[in-house]
Amino acid sequence: MIWHTSAPTIFRFLLILLSVVCAASGVRGAVDAGDELQVEVTKKGAGKQVVIVQGAKEWFMLIDVTPENAVILKQEKDHERYLVDESEIHDRPMTADEVDAAITDYVNSVKTRAQKK
């Protein structure tokens, strides 16, 4: 019985993860290999995703909001090597303001870390 209630969440998570990999690989080819950060924020249903690229480095965050919960995926890649691959599942949906704040905080965090290097 527990498997039945959690199976849609696991399936949804796997679909999101697959879309992350596809989206990240598509963005990489379209960006010049410069030192400047390229930031692209896209609305995804009630959530958002952000892709940040600097040369061969790539940062990705997806916030998927459903009526029941919110899933946050974060990835950091250098060339083809994943340095960070994290996911969080929250037991309630995030509001639009919370999604915007999380995306803004993530972009600012990446900008700060990129400047220090």
Poorly predicted parts: 1-7, 24-33
Main beta-sheet annotation:
5 strands, antiparallel
Could you give the order of the helices and strands? Answer: HEEEEEH
Q: What is the arithmetic mean of pLDDT?
A: 81
Structural class: alpha+beta
Strand content: 35-45%
Major β-sheet strand ordering: 1-2-3-4-5
How many beta-strand segments? 5
Any idea how many domains?
1
Query: For the CA atoms, what is the radius of gyration?
Result: 15 Å
Tally the helices.
Answer: 2
Alpha carbon gap, first and last residue? 50 Å
Molecular structure report:
It is a single chain. The chain is α+β, with helices and mostly antiparallel strands and 117 residues long. The protein has 2 helices and 5 strands; from the N terminus they run H-E-E-E-E-E-H. It has one domain. The protein has a 5-stranded antiparallel β-sheet with strand order 1-2-3-4-5, with helices on both faces.
Element layout with pairings:
Elements: H1 2-28, E1 38-44, E2 47-54, E3 57-65, E4 70-78, E5 81-90, H2 96-116
Antiparallel strand pairs: 1-2, 2-3, 3-4, 4-5
Which labels suit this protein?
117 residues, alpha+beta, 5-stranded antiparallel beta sheet, 2 helices, 5 strands, 41% helix, elongated, disordered N terminus
